[in-house]
Amino acid sequence: LTLHNMADLTEKSSVTVFGGKQKVFTHTSEACKCTMTFGIYLPPQIETAKCPVLYYLSGLTCTHENFVTKAGGQRMAAETGMVIVCPDTSPRGVKVEGDDESWDFGTGAGFYVNATEEKWKNNYNMYSYVTEELPALIEQNFNVDADKKSVTGHSMGGHGALICALKNPGMYKSVSAFAPICHPSACPWGQKAFNGYLGPEGPAWKEYDATALVENYEGPPLDILIDCGKADSFYEKKQLLPEDFVEACSKAKVPVALRMQPEYDHSYYFISTFVEDHIKHHDRYLK
Questions:
Q1: What distance in Å separates the CA atoms of residue 262 and residue 201, rounded to the nearest whole number?
Q2: CB-based contacts of 203, cutoff 8 Å, min separation 6
Q3: Where on the phi/psi map is residue 129: left (φ > 0), alpha (ψ -120 to 50), or beta?
Q4: Is the dihedral of CA 152, 64, 232, 264 positive or negative?
Q5: Do 19 and 115 form a contact (C-beta atoms < 8 A)?
Q6: Which of 157, 134, 159, 155 is CA-nearest to residue 39?
Q7: Could you list the active site residues?
Q8: 142-155 exposure pattern, b = at least 16 Cβ within 10 A, e = fewer
Q9: What angle do CA 248, 250, 260 make, to 5 degrees?
Q10: Which residues neighbour 202 within 8 Å (Cβ) at sequence distance 6 or greater?
């Protein structure tokens, strides 16, 4: 991937919050071959020191905006001196036939894979986008420490966070997730997405399934934090399957804390309640 500089970034908005700046940028993406949007929180400390970066991957139907406006993460990011980058969830405006037919596949539902199916493979490369292109762009244009990054996410984005960390040992200092899709090969959302982007079930599915990936994880110790609401309707419908992931972690001796939170659902009310815990979790490893 080619080097980018600030000339390639178009600033769409900037507001001051907790002494830092919450900005939104667009840029032309090579991985997705379209204009992509991301949100970035720049804490006050960035004026004088290189700051670590937390990448937050959003869920189905979401954009860069959900975390920015609903999670309330900026206060803790300002306190800890952490940059938070929020990419979009899929390519936009690429006009692939069928991309807008359902809310859980296509637009807003890139599933953080590199598609191999003919129709999708030109644009739907969100895995490369969030693990290679976007970090390179951030590291070239902002005063960040390239060696200090962590990843978190929600639902489909929690799946994204887990696979990004497991597939790239040592790249991320820590990983966490809110109500992640932990075993996509075994749930309706994941099966639909993988079938569409990767073709019929086979070895390719395991390459993007956290429960399969953790079985063979060999890398620096990963401390995984997962929060999930007990009143989450998608948990009840077996779309998330966090227990499968925990079982695989214990077999592989990978530390994981799964916290089942009574009465909480799948929404940003749940995320905003526990976002401080997650930022503190990452801050321990990004110091």
A1: 35
A2: none
A3: alpha
A4: positive
A5: no
A6: 134
A7: 155, 232, 266
A8: bebeeebbbbbbbb
A9: 85
A10: none
Contact of 279 with 178, CB cutoff 8 Å: no
Token duo for residue 85: 């980058």
Residues 165/175, Cβ–Cβ less than 8 Å? yes
On the CB side of 62, how many CA atoms lie within 13 Å of its CA? Answer: 28
pLDDT tens digits along 150-188: 999 999 999 999 999 999 999 999 999 999 999 999 999
What are 195-204's pLDDT values in tens digits?
999 999 999 9
Residue in the structure block whose two tokens are 């859980």: 104
pTM: 0.97
Radius of gyration of the chain (CA): 17
CA 135 to CA 138: how far, in whole Å? 5
Listed in sequence order, the DSSP H helices in the chain are 65-70, 74-80, 126-128, 134-141, 156-167, 188-198, 203-206, 210-213, 233-236, 242-252, 268-286
Tokens at 11, concatenated:
């600033």
Closest listed residue to residue 179, CA positions, set 132, 217, 140, 226:
226
Tokens of 188: 């309706």
Environment class of 248 (CB within 10 Å of its CB; exposed 0-12, middle 13-18, buried 19+): buried
Gap between the Cα atoms of 197 and 187, Å rounded: 15
CB neighbour burial string for 38-65, b if at least 16 within 10 angstroms, e if fewer: bbbbbbebbeeebbbbbbbbbbbebbbe
